[in-house]
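Entry type: protein chain
Record version: 2
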Amino acid sequence: MGEIIGILVAGLVIGLLGKLVAPGDKDNIPLWLTLVCGIGGVLIGLGVYRAFGGDGSNGVDWTRWIVSIAIAAVLVVVASTVTGRSKVTARR
């Protein structure tokens, strides 16, 4: 149970950081989708990190978290593009 809560909290933080570093204005996706992108970034980031030989380190493994943030940023851009929500209103 604690691991699931940890992944949710890490997913929210990584998702928000991913939204922060994503290019352009990506504030048009809802918080739940940011959380999903963050969780995806955490899980996919861990897989990519391990696939390239990452085996962890003593203390905080910054490389793993940077990879997770980068992947979350890509997922935020994809989610923003796919949902197509825009803050721009049409002029008449």
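Comment: The chain has a mean pLDDT of 80.
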